[in-house]
Structures are given as C-alpha cells and as structure tokens.
Amino acid sequence: MPPPVASAFAEQPVPPWRRAVLKVGSSLLAADGGGGLTPRFALGLAQFVSANLQQGREVVIVSSGAVAAGRAILPRRVEADAALAARQALAALGQAQLIGLWQRFFERPVAQVLLTHDDLRNRRRYLNARATLNELLALGALPVVNENDTVSVDELKLGDNDNLAAIVAALVDADVLFIATDIDGLYTADPRRDPGAQPLNTVSELTEAVLAMAGGSGSTVGTGGMRTKLEAARRAGAAGIDTVLFNGRDGEVVRALAQGRLFGTRLHAGRTRLAARKYWLRNAPLAEGAIRVDAGAASALLGKGASLLPGGITAVNGGFRRGDMVEVHAPDGQPIAKGVSQYAAGDIARIAGRHTRDIHTVLGFHYGHSVIHRDDLVLL
C-alpha cells in the first residue's frame, strides 16, 4: 500500500505521458529574505524528474528564479518593483546560479535554453527552437528553459513563465504540463483569504467562471499567480495538452506524483493533441507559392502518411521562407496537402529530386531530412 498523503485534494491517477514539461516558479526556488536560491524544494522536484527519466520518459524544465538569484549577488539591494533594466541586470547575474542549482541534482548534462515569446511567434525561430530542444532530448540532456529576460521588453515585467511553459509544451509535443506551485491546487476561491474555498480535483473546461476563481500572486518573489497558471492551462489545452497543478512545497505530494498519484488539480485539454495540431494546420494562412511532387511522392503522402522528402519534388514556385505554410500539389497541379516548410523556396529548388543525404552537400547546411515533416503536414 502506498503511504497516505495529507491533502485536501482527492487522489487521482496522473495522466499517462512519455514527455512532459515541468514549470517551477520563483516561490519554490528563492530563499527567504532575498538570499538567492535554495535547494529546499528544488531537490524533491529534481527527484521527481530523475525518477521519470529512469523510466525512459523525457522532461523539459521551465524554471524561474534568475532574478531572485541575481538579487543576492548585487552589493546593493534592487527592489522587486525596480525599473525593467535593473531587473534585467539581475536576471543576467542570476542565470548561471539558476542553471548551477539544477545541474547539482543530475548526473546528466543540464542545458540552458533562453527564449522569449518573440522567438516562438516567429515561425523560423520557432522551428529552430523546436529542433534544438528535440536534439537535446535525443542526446539525453535535460533542457532547462527560461525567458531571455536580459533582452525581453514586456515578458519579464509580466512574469509570464507559466505561459512560456505552455508554449514550450506545445513546442516539444509534450503529453502533459506539470505546474509546481506553492498551494495545493485550484480552489473555488483563494484559500488564503476564504476559509470556505473548496478544492477542485478536475476541471473539464476552462470557462470564464473558472478563471474568475483565481486570485493574484501569492509570492513576493514571483509575479505570476493562479490566473496566469489557468491561462497557461488554456493555452496548453488548445494544443491538446492536459495541465496538472500541484504543491511543489509538499514533499509527500511530490513523491506521490513520482508514483503516478496526483493530489492536485487536473485541467483537461478537451481535445487530443493530434486534433489540435491538425486544426491549426488546416486553418493557418498559406504563403504564396507551392511545391509540386511526382506521383510516387503524392501516393506516399496520401496513402502512407509519409513526410515530404526532396527526392519526390519536381518543381517549386513562389518566394516563401522557412517556416511558412505552403501547399503541396500533385503532378496535375491539384492541391493535396499543406504544411510547414523546413526550407525556403530557393533552397528547395536546389535540392529538388535529390536524395536526403545530398542536402548538406548542395546547401552547405540542413534542417533535417524532410522538406515538410509528417507532423507538420495535413492532407486536403
């Protein structure tokens, strides 16, 4: 029998997953009194990650805490509401300490990945970020993602690592987004102010009424709150990814989570990842131009769910760029599919009809063997 857990939330199974994103906020990493970072709660979360890595699962950590770490380094104190430039300087100072904190818990290499929302809005940079994260996971590294606060404009002020975690979850095709917070989960009201607040074990749909239950930030070191966590869950849900909220300060809850037992709130996506991905692909705007393929490639796309390789391409027109959404045409010119192109039109023209092994020789670089990967393609 597993040990009992003292929690207001009922036990439920963790949704099945092979790849997950774990978001850890500043309130779980910052020492009391502005003293930098502490391993007090991070250790338990690292053990949760390690237990799952040993089972063959993959984890990406999205971690706050750089500003809190930097605040302990400066000889003079910078207040939490300081000017943006001062807080960006704190983030620059604290990044090394933040990565060092996580690295101490793992024998495998920890890789720092700094992103801004602008990186993820731009399709070409989005594809580059996705390729880098997937390669790091394939190499057995543990990616630790944070906002690139030193160059961001609004993101640091907003303290929006919750939504960044949701974006990263969609970026790496995660099965679930875990958000470690400093309360047990979602309640009908803020339990720190309303003793009558009731725990919500599951949320099937994130309506405005549910969002209204969220209070503000409960921490002096983090600028997010339950509202941003629910907004992140909504964003993840749009990509078909469930979100789990749990108390990262409660060692029993974290240990139970490593055993597949959740004491917290599960927010259901409402649609599958595949359905969400295909919906986006079907409705994303097209760039001007198209790729024409031969009969063999058309048959492979339509009948076998294959990726589009350069060998099956006969022609390309338009001036689209890497990351643009383009149509794929059959030999007779009829559109049969659309997808995100890994290469610009000019580059595709140079590798059309060639074997995948020739891509690097011809172009001097390559972004993978597929011109359009099957995960980025939908049939018309």
Overall description:
Its EC number is 2.7.2.11. It is found in: Cytoplasm. Keywords: Amino-acid biosynthesis, ATP-binding, Cytoplasm, Kinase, Nucleotide-binding, Proline biosynthesis, Transferase. Residues 289-372 form the PUA domain. The chain is an alpha/beta fold. It has two domains: 12-271, 3-Layer(aba) Sandwich (Carbamate kinase), CATH 3.40.1160.10; 284-379, PUA domain (Archaeosine Trna-guanine Transglycosylase, Chain: A, domain 4, Roll). It is 35% helix and 18% strand. It is built from 14 helices and 15 strands. The chain has helices at 42-54, 66-71, 84-103, 117-121, 123-138, 155-158, 161-171, 208-212, 226-238, 251-258, 273-283, 295-304, 345-351, 359-363; strands at 12-13, 19-24, 58-63, 110-115, 142-147, 176-181, 202-203, 242-247, 261-262, 264-267, 290-293, 313-317, 325-329, 335-340, 377-379. Strand 2 (19-24), helix 1 and strand 3 form a beta-alpha-beta unit. The longest helix is centred in the first third of the chain and has 20 residues, at 84-103. The relative contact order is 0.12.
Order of helices and strands: EEHEHHEHHEHHEEHHEHEEHEHEEEHHE
CATH topology (level 3) name of the largest domain: Carbamate kinase
Count up the domains: 2
CATH domain class of the largest domain: Alpha Beta
Strand content: 15-25%
The overall average pLDDT, rounded, is 88
If strands are numbered along the chain, what order do they take across the biggest sheet? 4-5-3-2-6-8-10-7
Pairing-aware structural class of the strands and helices?
A: alpha/beta
The CATH superfamily of the largest domain is Acetylglutamate kinase-like
The CA-CA distance between the termini, in Å, is 52 Å
GO molecular function: ATP binding; glutamate 5-kinase activity; RNA binding
InterPro entries: AceGlu_kinase-like_sf, Asp/Glu/Uridylate_kinase, G5K_ProB, Glu/AcGlu_kinase, Glu_5kinase, Glu_5kinase/COase_Synthase, Glutamate_5-kinase_CS, PUA
Domain PUA: 289-372
Protein name: Glutamate 5-kinase
